[in-house]
Design brief:
The chain contains four helices and six strands; from the N terminus they run αβαβαββββα. The chain has 97 residues and is of the alpha+beta class. β4 and β5 form a beta hairpin. It is globular.
Length: 97
């Protein structure tokens, strides 16, 4: 069984993800083989918040080349987690603003 730290790999810090903080939407890179229920439980366990909904996106790895050799970066999964209205915010993201 996976732990919460195995499910949530890292936060995604971009301009678009920072714009969602006002609506209590937080973006994470997650393990590729987990579902929305496991993601919600992991975020609630790690940060002590209440999750309202989870949207997931499978992202294809970018094409890379070095000289004549071509290849792809690994595919990954992104989760956009929306918190409930009465839930507290995640302090890690608040320090980024």
């Amino acid at each position: 069984m996976k732990t919460a730290h195995d499910i949530v790999i890292r936060p995604i810090i971009t301009e678009a993800s920072m714009a969602g903080l006002a609506e209590k939407k937080y973006t994470f890179q997650v393990a590729r083989d987990v579902n929305k229920i496991e993601i919600a439980k992991a975020v609630e366990e790690l940060f002590g918040v209440k999750v309202a909904k989870v949207n997931t996106i499978n992202c294809k790895g970018q094409a890379k080349r070095m000289g004549v050799h071509t290849g792809y970066r690994p595919d990954w999964k992104k989760a956009i987690v929306t918190l409930t209205e009465d839930s507290k915010t995640i302090e890690f993201f608040e320090s980024m603003m």
